[in-house]
Structure formats: C-alpha cells, structure tokens
Amino acid sequence: MQHLKGKFIVLDGPEGCGKSTQLRLLADYLRSNHVDVTTVRDPGATRIGEQVRAILLNPENTEMGMRCEMMLYMSARAQMMKEVIAPALAQGKCVLCDRFVSSTLAYQLGGDGLTFEEIHATADIAISHRWPDLTIILDIAPEKSFARLNRAKDRLEQRPLAYHQQVYANYLAQAKADPAKYRLVNADADLHEVHRAIVQCLSLSSPGFTSL
Ligand code: TMP
Questions:
Q1: Which of 1, 29, 131, 187 could pair covalently with 33 via S-S, beta carbons 3.0-4.6 A apart?
Q2: How is the chain classified by DSSP, letter by letter?
Q3: Nearest protein CA to atom 15 of ligand 1, as residue
Q4: Ligand 1 pocket mutation, candidates 68, 74, 156, criterion most atoms within 8 A of CB
Q5: Considering its fold, how many domains does the chain have in total?
C-alpha cells in the first residue's frame, strides 16, 4: 500500500451510505500497513470550515439559495485544502476525505440553474487545481440508505425523497462519465464486504489502477 503515499482519496455517496464508518476502517487498515494517513471531512476539518458547516446544516437557514449554498461548500473546502490537504500531500501523506467536490456535483447540480461547468470551474479555484486521485462512491439507493439514519435530520437531509433520488442519479452519472477517476462500490452489503471492496479499489492489482 506504499503506492498510496501522497495520494488524495475521496469516499462519497448518499446520506446513510456508511462512508464515515468505511473511512475509519480504511484509515485503520492503511495505518496498519504503515501508510501515514490524514483524514478529513468536507465540509469541516478546519476551525473556519466547521463554522461554515454549522451555517450550511442549520435547519433554520431555510432561505438559503443554491448558489450561496454551493459557494459556502466551496469556501469551507478552500480553507481545508490550504490548511490541511495540500500540506499533508506535500509531506507524502495519504489523504482520505469524507465527501468532496463530487458531493457538490451531486447535491447542488441543477439548483437555481447551476450547471456542471459552473460548479467545476468554481471548485477548480477553491481547491487550487488539486483534484482527487480517486473518488470512491458508495452505491446505495436513498430509499435504503435513509432507513439507516437514526438521528435528527439536518437541513439537507430534510429535503424530499425526490431530491435525494436526483442526488443519487448525479453520483452515478459522475462515475460513469469519468471511469479513470471514479469507482462505484456496492454499499448495500455487509460492512466488512464493503471494506474489502474499497481496499480492492486501491490495490495495485485493481483493473485501471495505473491511472491513479
Ligand atoms: P455529511 O452528512 O456527510 O457530514 O455531509 C453534510 C451534508 O452536506 C450532507 O447532507 C451532504 C451535504 N453536502 C452538500 O450538499 N454539498 C457538498 O458539497 C458537501 C460536501 C456536502
């Protein structure tokens, strides 16, 4: 797993897909294989980013427009890139990120007329052109994943099922459009099975791995 030094890996997917648990399992696995790992969650990971996160997820902020929402996610991300991700990568660490631009391209796409090109161009500025080496999408339909949530819903989780079905479709479309940089992993399976599939995506023997 030494080939993952200095690599930037994103785990993403719909609400309740299990990515935070899988990120922890993956970080433990890589550390036990002597890879120096930095984990971050987006939005968050910095003092400023966590404040922006609180604004974004506050159910009282009902008047927030999609363009404002998109720019706030990008602001938190810009700070995280400068303060945490870029320095960690420069030190040869493997960065594991819970969500990233792939989330904005799933959740904010189409809102207030936002296009893929607009989000992509804004992201490129926010992240100083440092795109992830690989984005792993945990594939589970929202009808199933929402059943796993057992806490109060935040502002985005409160949106109707039809919205989350579109988010899911946006994830699948991204993965299909860029097979070199995306992998889909079936998340409707046992925790350990999902973990093994994620590790397989990162192994040198994985098909198409040379593009990482
Ligand atoms: P989390 O539940 O994985 O911590 O993510 C916080 C919420 O923010 C979740 O509902 C997904 C949403 N989100 C977006 O809408 N756009 C984004 O770019 C990101 C990173 C998250």
A1: 1
A2: -GGGTT-EEEEE-STTSSHHHHHHHHHHHHHHTT--EEEEESS-SSHHHHHHHHHHH-TT-TT--HHHHHHHHHHHHHHHIIIIIHHHHHTTPEEEEES-HHHHHHHTTTGGG--HHHHHHHHHHHTTT---SEEEEEE--HHHHGGG--S---TTTTS-HHHHHHHHHHHHHHHHH-TTTEEEEE-SS-HHHHHHHHHHHHSTTSTTGGG-
A3: 107
A4: 156
A5: 1
